[in-house]
Amino acid sequence: MSCLLVTGGYDNTLRLWRADNGSCQRSLQHADSQVNCLDISPDRQIIAAGGHTQIRFYEPKSASVAPYSTYEGHTNNITALGFCKTGAWMFSGSEDQTVKIWDVRYVIMCTVKPSASSESQAELPHQFPVTCAALHPNQEELFSGDQNGSVTRWDLRQNCCTEILIPVPGVSIRSICVSPDAQFMAAINNDGNCYVWRLVGSDITPLQVVPAHPQAFGLRCKFSPNGSKLITTSSDKTARIFDVANDFRQVATLGGHGSWVWDCAFSGDSNYVVTVSSDKVGRLWDTQGRLALELKGHQRAITAVALHDG
Asked: Rounded to two decimals, what is the model's pTM?
């Protein structure tokens, strides 16, 4: 499977798509919960889906449509998850006010018991519900955002907080991302503003505020794999692309959706991006803003997308 493109949402399913023609290849069961977030392991052997309290693992090449393993430990909605560079462990964030670190190898060894679950290897406590999290490229630090407007920097070697940034007190952080070259960190909030910091070693310096979606909720921000672009999504039914090297100047608006745009994912070459929306449609665009194809099949809002074509 050269390209793995998966979406999930409020119809309790995950769908795998062909990126060349937009046809649905498979539908996987995600019973009893919406899908809040998705990620794909670096070796493309695992699709991880975060829902209400559980993280479920699926095998893309398996004939089974059910998850083969489940992580239990969160007590509220899971809002973020991601694999480390090697795929040996992953992180998750939740409205239960924690970020957890999980040993993926434990569940892989327990796949003879499809219902096997594990305890997290570390827990990072917060004072407010966690809305998002992103791993630093050095794999030793993690940034998390919460509903009270804080961005917290964590040292994963010591499991401790090293810095707290508060762009606007009380305005929820909705998404955080770190550029692949570790030069920038961005966070978008409920005011529709995207805050950008410059990262130099252990120093974080405010760089600029990008008014990405005025008078709307910001929902997601992501850097492209080559670090040249930043995309944001919003309740204003659009996604917008910004040129990193040109002071984050807006270069494209993706305006074809009929409702909130919840998530997005870049292709490995940074030339294409997939967006998903409450309008039940996924859309593949080039980064100039031209629509390439649509992904139709979900029966309710699509809230998460993951793409691995590297």
From this structure: 0.94
